[in-house]
# Entry
Amino acid sequence: MKHKIFLFLFIGIGVFDLAYLTLVADSFYQEYLADTFVYWGYPQWGWLYADHKVYLIFNVIYLSSMLLCMIGASWLWFKKYTKSAFIFSILPLLSAAVFSYMPTYNRNQLFEKYGESENGDESRIPEGKWWASADQMQKYYDSSAWERLKGYFGRGEWPGGYAMWGDYRVWLLPDLATDTKGRRGFVIHGGTYHSSPWGIDLGDNVIDLAIYLRSAKGAIPLMIDYNKDIAAEIKK
# Structure
């Protein structure tokens, strides 16, 4: 009976490992090989997305390590080294837990930079005029269930999932006169986290913004001025 319980647990962990390996491999294909990822060069998403070569090397090593762990766990189980087999099979699961925390970690790191750089060069949206429009708006639940699942593990187009983004996000486009300081990827979004180091967090009010943008005839200006009491003001 005990052996059957261990076998059931081992198979369950193996199924999870295989699903997670598929998720990471699919993310790697979409983000790197298909070149459809939207975060390349966005400093707010950390070192992994800063450079194509770093991303390539890391994912090749990571995917290979997970595959070797799964093969090693199966071989050890076949040789009846049960405890060692469980250790090898749990490693990919632990790494998945670590990566599910990565979006939050990157967010916290940026808040630290925000505290050290009050002029806004490191984390906040550079001052100036920005534009928001319905054309640059995305709805979280328009993405597939598979894509949303990737987000919970810090991968895909919505890293961090609903808690990080909320119902909608609107990518901001800089005005020609705005000095972006060589940075991009700023966004208005919702979510259950409070505040945002890489954009403007509206919480549930992002739904009202989505309604307004859909009714607007074109892009609306957004003025960022940290010398004012109101950091960001949408001029209707």
The first strand starts at residue 128 and ends at 132. The mean pLDDT is 84.
